[in-house]
Amino acid sequence: MLKKQVIMCAVITGLLSAGGPSFARQARHSNNVASLAGHQVVLTRQPGGELDTIARKLNADDLATAARHKEIPLVLVGSAALSPDGRDTALFVQVQSASLCGSAGCSTDVYLKKGDDWVKILDSVSGPVTVLPRRHDGMYDIVVDGTDRWVWRNGAYHDTLTLTDGPSVTKPAPKKPHEVHTGLRG
User: Which of 119, 134, 152, 157 could form a disulfide with 177 if both were Cys (CB 3.0 to 4.6 A apart)?
Assistant: First the structure.
């Protein structure tokens, strides 16, 4: 019985620490945008796996920066469907090293497969990422760090902190996505 209790404590502690303090905070506060109705993207080490290989190619500059600082970075990857039909599955990548992570923690980049290329659709977001069931223009909303909601409009994700829906307000033009040809099929 004691062995089962120790294992359960380890599992619960691991689940809470996997998402960091923000995940624990999110679980305690029901007023966060990222409710339990969405699902958190889990980032894991997958050395030598297909997603790891693609992530390393897409983040070659960051890996080179870490190498110049004599660091061996940790590459974490995950994936999640961003559309109901599952055709738009995103690759989430976080490269962790002292030279790449700042006071806000390590940032995550999000890529979407378009033909033979991977297009960066979110750049350097910090905190746990949750995919919500609510959609805009056919793509699921994304929440970063429990409260920062991003919605898909006109072929790109937009931060709702700067997006307004008023008819007389001019919305900022979306940034042109950064396309990277990998030559890898994924």
Answer: 119
Residue 163 in contact with residue 175, Cβ under 8 Å?
Answer: no
DSSP letters, 8-63, are HHHHHHHHHHHTHHHHHHHHH-TTSSS-TTSEEPPPB--TTSHHHHHHHHHTHHHH
- H or E element at residue 67: helix 60-68
**E strand or H helix at 64, and its extent?**
helix 60-68
Rounded Cα distance, 35 and 27, in Å: 8
d(CA 44, CA 83): 22
Collect all residues with Cβ–Cβ distance below 8 Å to 174 and sequence separation of at least 6.
153, 154, 155, 156, 158
How many residues belong to the chain?
186
Q: Quick one: average pLDDT of 26-50?
A: 71
